[in-house]
Amino acid sequence: MGFFDRLSNGWNITMSSFKVLRANKQLIVFPVLSGAALVLIMASFGLAILAAFGFDVEFLESEFFGAESSGSMVLNYGLIFCFYVVNYFVITFFNMALIHCARLYFHGEEVTVSAGLRFSLSRIGVIFSWALFAATVGTILRAIQENTGIVGKIITGLIGIVWSIATFFVVPVIAYENCGPIDAFRRSAQLMREKWGESLGSRIGFGVVNLLAFILLAVVVVALGATVHWALGVAIAVMGAFSIMIVMSAAETIFIAAVYHNVTGTPVEHFNQQLIDGLFEPKN
């Protein structure tokens, strides 16, 4: 399959994802809740650390984050690990809820936010296990990156890319295949090896939509800032950027749900089967 065929397929699959989202606008709630939860949890986390040291920022920086402190490295990476755990847990929890709602829609069942949240709560143990596993990997890569030269940074960067590809299907796998974190990673990587095509055409589609949306937002912001007031332009820029990010996040998660159900043999009514088959086809 040629590049332009994949470009066309990616665009059509992207549009199909947005079609599902338009039919289920309540799914936007999940990325909103995910972002809000991360902000609140990390703000509380930071406040608790400051309170523990009497809000003495200078002491905290000098004693625990100074380059020469032997204890600073342990605390530093401990905090990074905790951040990763929270980050992976929150994102996986709400992505799983969204993926389950997409599955309900694909099967012609009623889609509700509460149904998605209940499903994620029923899988909270494996979500936490995955968060611990992913946070461990992330912390190790961060430590290697920060304590090696340019070659180490390049290697960890490449490992990070491989990790993101190998974990593409992790959320639906831990949702529906009763796998622990290591088995889920292996299963996700296996699915990608079996169905990996020459390129992920959908990334082009989502990239084009994202670029066009931000260009349109920039035009509106500049126009309002120049003709009305700069403060209005800033407000519209913040709200517009946030809206674009949550819509794109929801649509991409719907895409993952659709492709997962396709590659595991479950028909997906609202997606063109040939397009998805062409997106993930075995390598020669």
UniProtKB/TrEMBL annotation:
Keyword Transferase listed? The answer is no
Which Pfam families does UniProt cross-reference here?
Answer: DUF6159 (PF19656)
Keyword field contains Iron = no
Q: Which InterPro entries match?
A: DUF6159
List the transmembrane segments: 27-55, 75-99, 120-144, 150-179, 200-224, 230-251
Q: Which UniProt keywords apply?
A: Membrane, Transmembrane, Transmembrane helix
Name of the featured protein: DUF6159 family protein
Native organism is Flaviaesturariibacter amylovorans
